[in-house]
Amino acid sequence: MTSVLLADDQAMVRSGLRMILELRGLVVVGEAADGAEAALLAAELEPDVVLMDVRMPGTDGIEGLRRIVAAGLPCRVVVLTTFDLDQHVYDALRAGASGFLLKDASAEQLVGAVERAAAGEVPMAPQVTARLVDRFLEREPDAGTPPPGVAALSPREREVLSLVAQGLTNPEIAERLVVSLATVKTHVRSILAKLDARDRVQAVLLAHRHGLVAED
User: Fold this and answer.
1) Is 214 a domain residue?
2) Which CA distances in Å does 122 have to 40, 98, 147?
3) Quick check: pTM over 0.85?
4) Is residue 208 within a helix (H) or strand (E), and if so which, with residue range?
């Protein structure tokens, strides 16, 4: 059963998120009012997913995310944000966010995002992925030399990476390539290992930066 930690400075927002998630069978193990408390509770409670608001007084969500990543905690951090793609979103991307969820998302989108994050997916609509990647590369355009792991990717792994970078989920990739879901997961794990990428978001950025995304 997926466990979730909520991090938002507004008690009413946390209460609403808790109600939606618990009605769908997910377990909310704790609530935090700022990034520092979120990092501490993440270490103590070991949730599968942290839903982290960006703007919070005191220690904001970006710093909380950095602390979670720096501590090597296995939880996935999904950042709650508005769709303005401001500097906070780019900072979250660099800090290691596992996905982004709009604060006006529906209950179905919220639950789906948490479940996808827990399963190792990136809860982000393809169009959001495209906009984030485009803006990110505008700010950091220098591709440089591809890491050694790129050359180590097999043709099939490059194909899977390209589909991941296009925003497809594991089940969608399995359907596209006519392979099992287990096979796709194996490819994704191998890709992340070869690229030394913490998660799919980092792999997606690397794929776009080094021209590994095929035209669909």
Assistant:
1) no
2) 24, 6, 22
3) no
4) helix 200-209
